[in-house]
């Protein structure tokens, strides 16, 4: 019973007026109904819509190469063992050109071999930020050299935004989409 979803999706007929309006605005902008973190966040429509706005930029329009952005999303899903996010972004990462071997290493919690320069800079920055809660001067300088200051801000934003989504779904115990992506096993305790 401990694994049951805590904050399951709310049926449309059980939503408050504010929740229904937020769900409609979400669907109008994204083209699909509430899923994953948004089905959790709709309990606070203001949080959900503000998160959607930030996500619209960070997912679809940030300045990082799409392949790098998707890699950082997978790294964040791995750090949080967030299976729903992993299951969705696994295929997006492949479509963006991220090598399957890199994805597999991230799933295993290993530093991938053979990364491109931008992938290595983003990997080092994202992992260091998530594990140390800061980045060294050398890691920061390399990220600035490769992505520029706007790219560094977007890199921080992607890590932060997908950490927020992971926290929402981990607390809610959101189930992954089992027919999507590579399974993401939990790290041993």
Describe the structure.
- This protein is mainly α and 189 residues long.
- It folds into two domains: 12-60; 66-172, AhpD-like, CATH 1.20.1290.
- It has eight helices and no strands.
- The chain has helices at 17-30, 36-41, 45-60, 66-80, 83-95, 100-108, 117-132, 137-172.
- Helix 1 (17-30) packs parallel to helix 3 (45-60), helix 3 (45-60) packs across helix 8 (137-172) and helix 4 (66-80) runs parallel beside helix 7 (117-132).
- It is globular, with a radius of gyration of 17 Å.
- The mean pLDDT is 93.
What descriptive keywords fit this protein?
single chain, 189 residues, mainly alpha, AhpD-like, 2 domains, 66% helix
CATH 2nd-level architecture of the largest domain: Up-down Bundle
Low-confidence stretches: none
CATH superfamily of the largest domain: AhpD-like
Radius of gyration: 17 Å
Choose one word for the global shape.
Answer: globular
* Number of discrete domains: 2
Helix content: 55-70%
Quickly name the level 1 CATH class of the largest domain.
Mainly Alpha
Strand content: under 5%
Largest sheet: none
Mean pLDDT figure: 93
Number of strands: 0
Question: What is the fold named in CATH at topology level of the largest domain?
Answer: AhpD-like
Rounded to the nearest angstrom, the distance between the terminal CA atoms is: 20 Å
Helix run count: 8
């Amino acid at each position: 019973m401990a694994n049951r979803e805590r904050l399951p999706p709310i049926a449309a007929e059980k939503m408050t007026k504010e929740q229904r309006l937020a769900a409609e605005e979400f669907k109008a902008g994204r083209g699909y109904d509430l899923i994953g973190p948004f089905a959790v966040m709709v309990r606070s429509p203001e949080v959900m819509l503000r998160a959607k706005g930030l996500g619209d930029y960070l997912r679809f329009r940030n300045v990082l190469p799409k392949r790098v952005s998707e890699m950082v999303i997978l790294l964040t899903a791995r750090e949080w063992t967030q299976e729903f996010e992993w299951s969705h972004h696994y295929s997006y990462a492949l479509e963006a050109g991220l090598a399957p071997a890199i994805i597999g290493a991230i799933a295993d919690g290993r530093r991938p071999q053979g990364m491109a320069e931008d992938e290595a800079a983003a990997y080092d920055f994202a992992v260091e930020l998530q594990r140390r809660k800061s980045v060294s001067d050398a890691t920061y300088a390399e990220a600035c050299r490769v992505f520029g200051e706007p790219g560094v801000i977007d890199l921080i934003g992607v890590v932060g935004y997908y950490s927020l989504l992971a926290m929402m779904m981990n607390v809610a115990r959101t189930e992954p989409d089992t027919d999507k992506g590579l399974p993401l096993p939990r790290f041993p305790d």
